[in-house]
TrEMBL record, chain A:
SUPFAM superfamilies: 4Fe-4S ferredoxins, FAD/NAD(P)-binding domain. Transmembrane segments: none annotated. Pfam families: FAD_oxidored, Fer4, Fer4_7. InterPro entries: 4Fe4S_Fe-S-bd, 4Fe4S_Fe_S_CS, FAD/NAD-bd_sf, HdrA-like. PANTHER family: COB--COM HETERODISULFIDE REDUCTASE IRON-SULFUR SUBUNIT A, FERREDOXIN:COB-COM HETERODISULFIDE REDUCTASE SUBUNIT A. GO terms for molecular function: 4 iron, 4 sulfur cluster binding; metal ion binding; oxidoreductase activity. Belongs to the HdrA family. Gene3D superfamilies: 3.30.70.20, FAD/NAD(P)-binding domain, NAD(P)-binding Rossmann-like Domain. Keywords: 4Fe-4S, Cytoplasm, FAD, Flavoprotein, Iron, Iron-sulfur, Metal-binding, Methanogenesis, Oxidoreductase. Its cofactor is FAD. Residues 234-263, 282-316, 585-614, 624-653 form the 4Fe-4S ferredoxin-type domain. This is Disulfide reductase. GO terms for biological process: methanogenesis.
From TrEMBL, chain B:
This is 4Fe-4S dicluster domain-containing protein. Residues 22-52 form the 4Fe-4S ferredoxin-type domain. The keyword Ribonucleoprotein does not apply. Keywords: 4Fe-4S, Iron, Iron-sulfur, Metal-binding, Oxidoreductase. It comes from the Bacteria. PROSITE patterns: 4FE4S_FER_1, 4FE4S_FER_2. It comes from Geomonas paludis. The gene is hdrC. GO terms for cellular component: plasma membrane. GO terms for molecular function: 4 iron, 4 sulfur cluster binding; metal ion binding; oxidoreductase activity.
Amino acid sequence: MSRIGVFVCHCGENISRTVDVEQVAKAAGEIPGVAFSCDYKYMCSDPGQTLLKKAVAEHKLDGVLVAACSPRMHEKTFRKAAEAAGLNPYLCEMANIREHCSWVHEDRDMATAKAKDIVKLMVERVRKGKSLAPITVPVTKRALVIGGGIAGIQAALDIADAGHKVVLVEREPSIGGHMAQLSETFPTLDCSQCIMTPKMVDVANHPNITLFTYSEIEKVDGYIGNFQVTVKHKARSVDESKCTGCGICMTKCPKKKIPNEFDQGHGMRPAIYVPFPQAVPNTPVIDRENCTMFQSGKCGVCAKVCGPGAVDYEQQDTFTVEDVGAIVVATGFKLYTIDRKPEGSPIQGYGEFGYGTIPDIIDGMTFERLASASGPTGGKILRPSDGKEPKQVVFIQCVGSRAREKGISYCSKVCCMYTAKHTMLYHHKVHDGQAYVFFMDARTPGKGYDEFWRRAVEEEEAVYIRGMVSRMYQRGDKIVVMGSDIQVGVQVEIEADLVVLATAVQPQDGADLLAQKLGISYDKYNFYSEAHAKLKPVECATAGIYLAGACQGPKDIPDTVSQASAAAAKVMTLFAKDKLERDPVVAKVNEKYCVGCFACKKVCAYGAIEEKEIRDRQGNLVKKVAYVNPGVCGGCGTCQATCPSKSIELDGYTDEQIMAMIEAL
Amino acid sequence: MKNKLMHLSNETMNIGFVKKVEALSGSSVRRCFQCGKCSAGCPMSTFMEHPPNRVVRLLQLGQGQRILAGRSIWYCASCETCTTRCPNKVDLAAIMDALRKLSWDADGPSKESYVQLANRLFIENIRTYGRQYELRLGAAFNMKSGQFLKDLMLGPKLISKGKLKMFHSKNKNIAEIEGIFKRIEEMRKKGEAL
């Protein structure tokens, strides 16, 4: 006969308002096997917990049930209290009579009856419960950071400064990401390169950081504390160990008219190139698709002029496997384009803006490059079509964003601020020019942000027009912008020389594929999902993987850097212990009955199920069975529900417990 | 005029006019972020085709002529509720004053306004007689506005109650009053007064 204690909480008035807690406690006391029951105003308070501990000792309880809120709230609290009283913490359970009962019902009698039922069946679960011990997993104290933008750089530096080894993997030939493309940054207008390059150099020189540029994640195996990540190093065609970064290959390359991606296609670069002067590493890469040597086999100029003989046309892609304990994902964003989209794409371009066919309609990032001293125009604002200085510039906000029709319903968050910045940069460079901004709302939450926007309007004389643009078309060398000022209630027409669109922030290309490799979840836009929107904003649902920057949702630089440091702090917390303790609520396989159909493997969301070979003494294969890696198992129970032979069970939620609960009703 | 398509360019935006309004009122129009609190509290807002916030908005867009074409500024009672409550320290009452002044000077579109006519006759009367001569004011207003019979039947009633004098009585110190007018005119020339 078991001796279970039932503690019914009032939760102030949250429960007792609709549930007669005294009756529930009394009814619980009458269940066979319940040795003690009571009710108390706040069970989670210190006196409440003391009450529980005392009762365990006095009544020699061997199981505890707290009927209160959701276990998500206070399971840990009461399990700790039970443990302090000498019980195995996993013999303490919670009956949720708040979220599942008092909050959702109005009729007191019926709610009380339901609360009694919930308590009754949970008592059965406690009765069939087993003592469990936490699982320990070793930790590899080495982190992987995916993405070398400001988020990845910050996370890598923080972890490395804490004394742990970091592998930083970047897809492009240089780290720096989008921040390196910016001219000046809001709200202080400091030069992006000036504050960015020191960090990039720090990454390159840090003894704890291994930098892999022009590399991608091929495969991810393992689990928290013990990941094995296969990294693909794309062939650079230049030996990094030999190259001195003199740059003579770039000046001698005969093919020089390739649109430079770093300048949004507006500047030109040779086939062997570094994306921008401050690139880290300063090692060129050969763009094989545009290189004459690779296309026709005749050229080889770069190899001839290279003093140290670093150019290597025969280089192949290579792969390495990196053992890491934690992963920070910082893959960043891309900008939406208004171009016509392929049929069937959920995101559609803007026909009313000419589907990107008008050359002087550019996006915000292109404007950044035009305004940047290192950009294609040397920092002069000149329009792409004829190189003239635009005297009337129209900025349009919310292009793609907040447009359900275009498949994107979210706010891109950064555009209001960067557009205000653009009007200032324009006003500083073209004194007799006029900037107009069509906007719906100016969203400027942030320190000094609203003041910055007001400065653009009041001091830098940008004309903000509340209302959207309906159509744009070319008339002569002007772009006719047809909008409206909804405050005055009139249609507005502006003949603009240049139009800058604040297009939506979207996740990087391939974000979904990387998420599938990592086993993390993502939303319908391909932004990575955090474990909890408020309380776990940097953790993934998959243990040991953390998020930083715009890959999780649109973010500006201060927010990105904060989140990157937060992710780094989470990694350091993980690395602070030599062994990891994990909740023992994991699935176990009964190898005797398992027939090796691996239906469980197909449904496991965590990739926790492996194939295990069972051999006889002679080493002959008897059968293959499923094996659950306790370090990876998330305890969701899908495998248990799927297993046709009922040979897989989740500790704490065994079939026996569930059946007893059903029968109690 | 009210709903006519608005072309915006350096040529069509009359920034000079806005600068004048700002100088006369001592208040920036760019400070306004169009919260609408002025219009929300304005007792005359319902009579105006451009409520106070839109008057400021039109100034921000350099569209002073659109304001002067309408009568909104003449409905303003100068109660200063807008100025008192504005979160951005935009002195709307002063802006309205400045606009009325500029409208007066422009002798332009708002000449059609009876308010302006009444104001002018009122001041002229004071200058001539040193005080108000209501009978003449009423008669002149009716003649000039072309509404000869307006409120005519009120006349005998007011006269019988002594509210309207048949003959004016001139102020003794008329020369001093003329001096006040002269001084204001001089100050205006120097740009020291509205």
